[in-house]
Specification:
four-stranded mixed beta sheet, binds adenosine-5'-diphosphate, globular, binds zinc ion, alpha/beta, Rossmann fold, 2 domains, GMP Synthetase, Chain A, domain 3, twelve-stranded mixed beta sheet
Length: 432
């Protein structure tokens, strides 16, 4: 098991053979669910028609809307007596979706998360504090079982309660944390308030960060502030949750686990498959799931798959950072903007603090973009008016990235609303 070296470095030809047999098994399983049963009948699809992996592209894409329409049980492919767990998306972009698991599904998921953790360097003698919400959100139980599978002491700290988190770290000698990046940035302020220095007063060495888009600059800030190494973790509840793609020590893209998921990248407008190297929407097919197999599921997440193999020797392909969801993009004065672009600019400016928000407003038929930015405490002498230079610099940097001039408002450290879950970085008041 320790860890699945063989499968992680399996030659691609062999991996593809494995994928083909698993896709066939998955299609047979899926046909037992009400949704796919009906669909396959309607399009006259039978598994025998699938000869090569490429034939999968003849099947339609499954969407979040399909999941919502069939809520809750329309995708379940087994008698309910075999189903032992349900999880749900956080509902960031509308009504939540439900995903069901058998005991074997949960085993498989725990193995994947353990594989990711091991790859990032987590070992049995670490102390792992899982700082995301437990419950229907997958980050809690997903990493709990993953950590336990790896054999590491796993503290189910949950989200929020910042002072207690810091106390737990000190008391138990936490060495590894799983944390949402925006919360990691916020927590550093609480460290300062309590007079604790994470570098000197804790044993932290690794952070697993994910669940929301964040820039390389944000990662570097977290690494510098905590004195740790941070690894990007990607997942979505429809594909279990965490454990779908993860960074290896090269930190040059996240490896998908292609023995468990078949990954395609499509043009978000047309749904046509794109070659590796081109940016598009990630589409996933589960390869091992029993309770709720999903075929060609549209994630809405935009990324690029790297065509070159990784220097680490793993043969599973990698993807770039997630640029955002296709519906995160907003259009202002005809320009398409992704929140990640703003994150990259702001987090690269040292005087910028750890929190910011973008507000979009409409006034007299004219769209306005206001970026409220907390100033870093070290650069704040009590008077924001002294910082007009900084304000100008931020405006210029944003303008050169997004091509329009936003209104930048500097605010005092720790004055913007914070969230313990996924951060709300854009408030669009134009349609309200
Ligand atoms: P919801 O879709 O309601 O937010 P999930 O908890 O299933 O519920 O969230 C999965 C989504 O979170 C992904 O589809 C993606 O948009 C985002 N996400 C997860 N991990 C990352 C990551 N490492 N980088 C960027 N975005 C991420
Ligand atoms: Zn690698």
């Amino acid at each position: 098991m320790f860890w699945e070296r063989q499968i992680e470095k399996v030659p691609r030809k062999e991996l593809q053979r494995l994928q083909l047999s698993r896709v066939k098994r998955t299609l047979r399983q899926a046909a037992k669910s009400p949704f796919y049963g009906k669909l396959f009948k309607k399009i006259k699809f039978t598994v025998e028609k699938l000869r090569r992996l490429d034939d999968l592209r003849n099947l339609p894409l499954t969407t979040k809307e399909d999941l919502r329409k069939e809520f809750p049980y329309g995708f379940v492919a087994l008698p309910m007596e075999k189903v032992v767990r349900v999880h749900s998306s956080s509902g960031t972009t509308g009504r939540a979706t439900a995903v069901f698991h058998t005991a074997k599904d949960l085993e498989g998921w725990a193995n994947l998360v353990a594989r990711c953790m091991y790859m990032a360097g987590v070992r049995k003698n670490d102390v792992f504090q899982n700082m995301t919400g437990y419950g229907l959100f997958t980050g809690g139980l997903g990493f709990q079982y993953g950590g336990e599978r790896l054999g590491v002491l796993t503290i189910p700290a949950g989200s929020g309660n910042s002072k207690r988190q810091i106390a737990l770290m000190k008391e138990f000698g936490t060495t590894v944390i799983h944390i949402i990046p925006s919360y990691a940035l916020h927590l550093i302020k609480v460290f300062e308030e309590t007079g604790t220095d994470p570098k000197k007063d804790t044993k932290l060495r690794i952070a697993l960060i994910g669940a929301e888009p964040h820039s390389e600059a944000t990662r570097q800030r977290i690494e510098e502030m905590y004195g740790i190494s941070a690894f990007n973790s990607y997942g979505l509840s429809e594909m279990n949750g965490p454990g779908v793609a993860f960074e290896c020590p090269q930190k040059d893209g996240m490896h998908f686990w292609e023995d468990d998921f078949l990954v395609e990248i499509v043009d978000p407008q047309t749904g046509q498959i794109l070659p590796d190297g081109e940016e598009g929407e990630l589409v996933f097919t589960t390869l091992n799931r029993e309770a709720m197999p999903l075929i060609r599921y549209r994630s809405k997440d935009l990324a690029t798959i790297f065509p070159e193999p990784c220097r680490c020797g793993r043969t599973h392909r990698r993807m770039s950072r997630i640029k955002g969801r296709s519906d995160d993009m907003f259009i202002l004065k005809g320009v398409n903007i992704f929140p990640l672009q703003i994150d990259t600019v702001l987090m690269n400016i040292p005087e910028v603090g750890t929190n910011y928000v973008t507000v979009l407003e409409r006034e007299d038929f004219d769209d306005r973009m206001i970026v409220r930015v907390e100033v870093r405490p070290e650069f704040f002498q009590g008077d924001l008016r002294q910082l007009s230079n900084l304000q100008r610099r931020i405006t210029e940097s944003l303008k050169s990235e997004i091509l329009i001039t936003p209104k930048v408002e500097l605010v005092e450290p720790d004055s913007l609303p914070k969230s313990e879950g996924k951060a709300v970085r854009v408030i669009d008041k134009r349609e309200m």
